[in-house]
Amino acid sequence: MEEKKRLRKQILALRDAMPADEREEKSRRIAEMLVSMPLYDGTDILLTYVNYQSEVDTTDLVNKALADGKRVFAPKVSGETMEFYQLTGMEDLQEGYKGIREPVCGKMFDAETVKGQMLMLMPGAVFDEECHRIGYGKGFYDRYLKRLLKTGISVQTLALCYECQVLSKIPFEKHDVRPQAILTEMQFRRCSNGTN
Questions:
Q1: pLDDT tens column, 129-164
Q2: Gap between the Cα atoms of 52 and 100, Å rounded
Q3: Sign of the CA dihedral 76, 82, 73, 57?
Q4: End-to-end CA, the chain
Q5: How far is the C-alpha of 59 from the C-alpha of 28, rounded, in Å?
């Protein structure tokens, strides 16, 4: 746990120190790479984080997905629970949990009734070459994905981050859920499966 905390602090400081124009350019590159992939083309439903502070910016991706007729859902936190709500545009968001923009209205995502190919875009602090992920310490995505898995619902998971956030190896715990792939401004990495 201590090593995860140390790495989280170190890599987030590195990400925060990146000049805003450099982050903007890298976010643009990541978005362009994603929308050119068959993974995106085959997606009907996009579950995506809404960027906060120095994270990879998802604004263009949300706007593009909506323009392409995809159904887009963003997370909202209530206590220890995270649920996704449908967006019709970025104006559906306002500051919520810890200052992160969240949906203020919209239909809650229900994997058992909403049908189609699903892709979840995940944030995170630190990753490694095997797609292990260190989040921000609250476990929202781990718990949400485990709930989905229990229902037998299949969702593809892709983490977006900058190349400076990917290390060769990071510590992980049995309960951590790996994304199935990671996309940075440099490359797309796919791991064998999304569990440990």
A1: 999 999 998 889 989 998 888 887 889 999 999 999
A2: 6
A3: positive
A4: 17
A5: 10
Kindly tell me if the per-residue pLDDT of 190 is higher than 50: yes
Q: Which residues contact 16 (CB under 8 A, 6 or more apart)?
A: 53, 54
Contacts by residues 10-19 (CB-CB < 8 Å, ≥ 24 positions apart): 11/125, 11/126, 11/164, 11/165, 11/167, 12/54, 12/125, 14/164, 14/165, 15/54, 15/55, 15/162, 15/164, 15/165, 16/53, 16/54, 18/54, 18/162, 18/164
Please, are residues 102 and 50 in contact by the beta-carbon 8 Å criterion?
A: yes
Question: What's the burial of 18, exposed, middle or buried (CB within 10 Å: 0-12/13-18/19+)?
Answer: middle
pTM: 0.93
Instruction: Return the minimum-mean-pLDDT range out of 109-113, 117-121, 122-126.
Output: 109-113
For residue 182, give both structure tokens.
């990671």
122 beta partners: 159
For 103, the 3-state DSSP assignment is strand
Exposure string for 140-155, b = 16+ CB within 10 A, e = fewer: bbbebbeebeeeeeeb
Structure tokens of 170? 């990071």
Q: Over range 106-124, report the average pLDDT.
A: 89
Comparing C-alpha atoms, which of 86, 111, 83, 109 is closest to residue 97? 83
Question: Six-digit token pair at 156?
Answer: 């593809």
Kindly report, residue by residue over 10-26, the tens digit of the pLDDT: 999 999 999 999 999 99
